[in-house]
Each structure stands twice: as C-alpha cells, then as structure tokens.
Design a protein that fits this description.
The chain is mainly beta. The protein has two helices and twelve strands. The protein has helices spanning about 70-75, 195-205; strands at about 10-15, 20-35, 40-45, 80, 95, 100-105, 110-115, 130, 135-145, 150-160, 175-190, 205. Strand 1 and strand 2 form a beta hairpin. It is globular.
Length: about 220
C-alpha cells in the first residue's frame, strides 16, 4: 500500500495551465541568528506540476507561450522557492533587531514585505526560484497567522516572478502559497556565531518565542 503523500497546502501561479494550483510537498520555516539580528528562512517545494492530471499536454502546446503550455511546465517537473537551498545566493529576510524586536504574540498582525525594490549590483535576493528554469522572485508579502496549536501558524505567501531563464526583464507573473498548518522550526545560529553570542542576540531581538533556545548549530 502506497504511503499517503503530504499535503501541506497549495501554491498557485496566476494564469498557468492549472488554475487550482499544485500541492505543496515540502515546506520548512526556520529562524536564523546572525551577529546582530534575527532572520526567517523559508523552503518550499511543490509536487510535480502535472500530478493527478490525466491530460499531460495540450494539442496546441507548440503554439502557446511557455507560461500557458502544460508541456513546457512538465519539462521542469516542479517548483522550488527557497532561501536555504542555494547557499550563498540568497539571504532570507530580517525579522528582528534590538531596536525593533520580533514579538511572537503580535506576529499575526504583521506583514513582511520583502524585496520590494530592485536589487542593486551585487545585492542578493531573499529567495531564489526554480520554476521554468532558474528564474527570479521579488515583491513578497508574507504573513503568519497563529493557529490553536503551539508553534503552528497558517502561512500566506504572495510574490511576483520574472522568467529570468529565458531573459525576461520584468516581473510579469504572480504566485500565491497558502499553508494552513506550518510549524516554526526554531532559531539556530548562523555560521560563525557562537552559542554565547546567539543566546544574547536572541534575548535582545526576540520576544515570547515558544521554548526559545539559541542553538550553536549553523543553518547555512
């Protein structure tokens, strides 16, 4: 008997061939302690684009733009949006400093607007995306809404996509990921941050984190 596949929510890409979107197969939410601040990392992987689809391609696929072609999407299998998969390429996003600490009791009232402005030369984005090749994502709107279970939140993550793999210059497309039950994985120290330093930064930058513990292990 085949094991049941995880269904962690849905990710949709506006006006792609699957209006109901795709199952989220992997989703990880972690906190990272840097030398003077704390950051969030997210890692999302979809199921294969054509999972459960009896019609794998359209008769007129060859005449469609890539975004509208089932055959084109299926060639790339599935989507990954991540701040952790491609080490050195992405940054995640800052969520707390000593001047503006992250308070988990008010987390649900906050929207994180990430990469809202074009990146300058040499600047790294918060996330990278593999979609129809190695593309680009920006203009993220991320919210975490508390559920009734400890450390569990509902995630809403919206953003825009640029098809960088084929040379597009504008963020012409949109995605939205909805996950009703996402468990926060806790904070870990970034590479080079000692356990003692991590503990001090966590105390200064985070309020009311359930079972808060600075861990010396590295995250990236």
């Amino acid at each position: 008997m085949a094991s049941k596949k995880p269904d962690l929510g849905r990710i949709t890409f506006a006006k792609n061939p699957w209006p109901k979107g795709h199952r989220i197969a992997e989703l990880v939410w972690l906190g990272r302690i840097e030398a003077d601040s704390v950051w969030f990392d997210l890692h999302l992987v979809s199921a294969p684009y054509d999972e459960g689809d009896r019609v794998k391609s359209d008769d007129d696929d060859d005449r469609r733009a890539d975004w509208s072609s089932k055959g084109c999407w299926s060639n790339y299998n599935r989507c990954t949006i991540s701040s952790t998969k491609w080490e050195g390429v992405t940054t995640g996003f800052q969520v707390g400093t000593p001047q503006d600490p992250l308070d988990f009791t008010t987390l649900g009232a906050k929207t994180f607007n990430v990469d809202t402005k074009p990146k300058g030369k040499g600047e790294k984005p918060a996330f990278h995306i593999y979609l129809l090749g190695h593309d680009a994502v920006a203009e993220h709107r991320i919210t975490f809404t508390k559920t009734s279970k400890p450390k569990e939140y509902a995630l809403s993550w919206k953003g825009r996509i640029r098809l960088a793999y084929i040379g597009r210059k504008k963020y012409e497309h949109r995605f939205e990921a909805i996950a009703p039950r996402l468990v926060f994985g806790g904070f870990k120290a970034a590479r080079g941050v000692s356990a003692a330093k991590a503990k001090a930064v966590l105390a200064a930058c985070v309020k009311n984190e359930p079972a808060a513990r600075a861990k010396p292990r590295t995250t990236r």
